[in-house]
Structure formats: structure tokens, C-alpha cells
Amino acid sequence: MKTAYFDCFAGASGDMILGSLVDAGLNPGLLILELQKLGLHDCDLSFKQVVKKGLGATQAIVSFDSRHHGNRCFSDICSLIKKSSLSEDIKEKSISIFTRLAEAEARVHRTSVEAVHFHEVGAVDAIIDVVGAVAGLFLLGIDEVYCSPLHVGTGTVICAHGILPLPAPATFELVRGVPIYSTEVHGELLTPTGAAILTTLSKGFGQLPAMTTEALGYGAGAADRQIPNLLRIVIGNTCERDCFDCDQAAVIETAIDDMNPQIYDHIMEKALEMGALDIYLKPVQMKKNRPGIILSILCKPEDVGRFSRFVLSETTSIGLRWRFENRIKVKRDILEITTSLGNLRVKKAHTMEGTINFLPEYEDCKKIARQKNIPLKMVMAKVCKEALPDDVFFASGSGNES
User: What region, left, alpha or beta, does residue 125 occupy, with left being phi > 0 and alpha being psi -120 to 50 degrees?
Assistant: First the structure.
């Protein structure tokens, strides 16, 4: 699949997203033709080449007559998009972005989505940014979007409601459950429009996924900052997406040499109950020749904070490491089957060549073994013999996450 990865080392805004797409090879003329389908008059989209801290980039500029374009409410924007001659896919995704934005604004102002009147993000430039981002990705043939953790900035910003802290309240609502960070760089790095676009379209947030790169692009923001005010996009093809699922997971690790080993059983059970993808222990030799254990937890990127607090509170560790890792997973299905021993679940892993793994659910087999007083290994063997698909060419393994 053709994949776009947004590297948000200086945050992101709607115009930066448009600029990065054009810088990566999007034909600006085709994009403008798509946006003309909205029927917005007295507005213009142009692009210019700029240099930020020595790096060349493309800046998107939206100009319009403010006398003809005031603030719009959510229903106005949806109506405008629905009445356009854009494709249904572009309409649907654009409305989804504005829906997320409206829901965030409604939570911030303690009102309903229908009552939300956009201010900073309600003018024609925001509509151009949102619809342009969706249309641009469509024109480039992008199948999937991924994103780095979001650099949000620090300080304050002046808006229609006065001086507010950064990230702006609506932005903070939009990035719930998404990896974010802030540094000493002052200013609004991540805008509500940029946050809404990326959090709606991205399938995951983390490191650059494994891909063969085809194009790079840099979209420039208007401000000048301590770092290059740029958004980088990487476009390429991820390998064998039709055979495998690819995503990103976080790995949390700590080395422990002074804890009662009885506690590990409690930690492993509780971590799995909390939703850990996997947890494992590895013996190591530590400093001062002490035998120790490396505790590793595999979790979703958005759960890093939750599991970090868990590890530091439940173990004797006073520090840990964590990182993002790319995963390639065989496609799998959980099926319920009927056998002579009863009904139980099996996990079927498959590629285009056929089934490569057919594994009865351990807990189900254990339950049957106890109920019928049969050795567990015989239950598992009998289930496989009765239910093994004809296309299987390999059947073994634990089925654990990795």
C-alpha cells in the first residue's frame, strides 16, 4: 500500500500539511481544481518556495475577502461540503475531520456540537486546509496515513476568547490518546486544524513504518522559530500489506535485581488484565555481579504513560526505558468451531498462500480437559485433527503478540 508518514518535529497546521503534499509532488493545479468544487468565491490558494533554517520547503497561502466569509457553524460547513461536487470519499473524510473538531470545541465550551460557532478554524482558510488535505492525499493515491508523536509547543496564544495556554484547549481535546510532547520551543506548533486532520486520518502514531520511500516533502508554517518551522512528509510503499498487518507498539523495559520474585506473577497477571499486548521476563547478569530480571511490557503507544506508572508503582524499579517498534503481523481470525469434544475457539493465521497457523484456544482446551478428565495434549491434538483447514501448510506456535 502507498503510505504517507507525517514527521511533526515542529508540530503541524493545515497550511503546513498542504505545503508538504505539494512539496512531495502533488500537482497544485489539480488540487485547486478539486477545491473549486466547493464553490467558494473570492478566495485563492497559492504556493511559494521558502527556506526555513537552511531547509527548502513549500508554503501554502490562502487569501480571501473577509467581507464575504465570516465565521461558520458546524452545520454550515457540513452543508457546504455535502452540496459540492467532490467525490463521496473526500466529502465523508472532510466532514469527519470537522466533526472531531466540533466535538472538541463543544467539550471545551460545555455546549452542543450544533451550537458550536468556529472562530479561528471557521473561516474559509480552515475549510481549504481540511478539504485540501483530504483531496491532496486522494490525488497522490495514498492508502494509509501514519504520524509521528506530535510536538505541541508551549506558552500562550491570543484567540477570540482571549489569552489561552498552549496547547490550545481544543487542540488538547483532539490529541487525547495520542502521543504528544513539548520542548522549550515557544509558540503554537500544533493548531486545532492540524490536530483534527492528523488525528482523524492517521492509523497510528509512532516511528516511521518500514517502507520503500518514493518522495519527501516539507511544508512550511508562516512563523519563524528556534527550529525549522516545517512539517515533513515521507511517502512510500510498505511491504506486502496484502499479506500482513503492520502497526506500531511501545516497549517498556526495566532491569530489576532487588525484588521478591513472588511479585512477578502478580505483575504479569495485572498487566495482561490492564490490556498489555504481551509481557515477558528475561534473566540477566547486572552490575556487581547480581542476577537480575529484565521486565518487558508490550503495549499500545497511547498506553505508555499508564503502564509506566504501573511498573514504577508495582516494582522496586526507580526508572525505565521505552521505545516505539514497528510490527508485522500475520492476518488472523478468531473462529468458534464444533468438535466431538464440544465448542471452542481457534485462532487461524493466514496469508495469500493459505493458512499458516491453526491453534486451538488454550483456555478453552484446558476447560475441556478438566471437564472430561482428558490429558490437555490429547484435547489439542484431537481438535486440530478434526478441524484443521484443508489449505493449512503449517500448524504450530503460541499465537503470542511480538
Answer: alpha
